[in-house]
Design goal:
The chain is mostly helical. It contains six helices and no strands. The chain has one domain. Helix 3 runs antiparallel to helix 4. About 7% of the residues have low confidence. The protein binds heme C (2 copies).
Length: 152
């Protein structure tokens, strides 16, 4: 009896930590890294809803001011994988404005202590540049104890 109580408490205590992470799935197609990590980091699919990923993948010719078009086969491969691994639980699954992780409600809340000036520092430039501050971002690690905001 005691043992079970201890186990369920351990599970409960571990939950907030999991909720703040979006581990990069290990089955990413090679095309994801090749096609979606050239201009910015390859975002972990678990940080956006299915609908957001579908929107992004069906609008690649007008992608945040650039053209990120792909051939149909690659586009389908990446879309299927993103949708399969999209956020399903916790806060990350809400529809994000402009299909931006950096505009989702949880993002704004988690970053309310980051001053406006910080986002504009030359080594940061954009809130979408997760790796500037989260050293483990490419693996989907966003834990608060691995954040280092660059001084300039
Ligand atoms: C030609 C360059 C380029 C390529 C290739 C590219 N992107 Fe982007 N992407 C951008 C730019 C520019 C932005 C806006 C970045 C900013 O605001 O700092 C962006 C933003 C994003 C965002 C929103 C980031 C945020 O939360 O604000 C997502 C999600 C995204 N891209 C996914 C993808 C996916 C998926 C692919 C591959 C199919 C891809 N991108 C390929 C240039 C590119
Ligand atoms: C200018 C630096 C900076 C950038 C860029 C940045 N973050 Fe953060 N992030 C922070 C800081 C600072 C915190 C608060 C850490 C704390 O609670 O002590 C944070 C917190 C978080 C948390 C909550 C962590 C926790 O355990 O409470 C998540 C998740 C997160 N960021 C994801 C992202 C994602 C995804 C991106 C890119 C789309 C991003 N961040 C871009 C600085 C940044």
């Amino acid at each position: 009896m005691k043992k079970y109580l201890f186990l369920s408490m351990a599970v409960l205590m571990a939950m907030p930590a999991f909720a703040d992470k979006a581990p990069m799935p290990t089955d990413a197609p090679k095309s994801y890294e090749a096609e979606c990590a050239g201009c910015h980091m390859a975002y972990p699919p678990g940080l956006l809803s299915q609908k957001n990923w579908q929107n992004i993948m069906s609008g690649l010719s007008k992608h945040f001011g650039t053209d990120a078009s792909l051939d149909v086969k690659t586009q389908t491969e990446i879309t299927n994988w993103l949708v399969k691994n999209a956020a399903s639980k916790y806060k990350y699954s809400a529809l994000a404005p402009d299909n931006r992780i950096s505009k989702s409600t949880w993002f704004i809340k988690e970053h309310d202590e980051v001053r406006a000036e910080v986002w504009k520092r030359p080594s940061v430039k954009s809130a979408a540049n997760c790796t500037a501050c989260h050293k483990d971002a490419a693996r989907g690690g966003f834990s608060a104890n691995n954040v280092q905001v660059p001084a300039k």
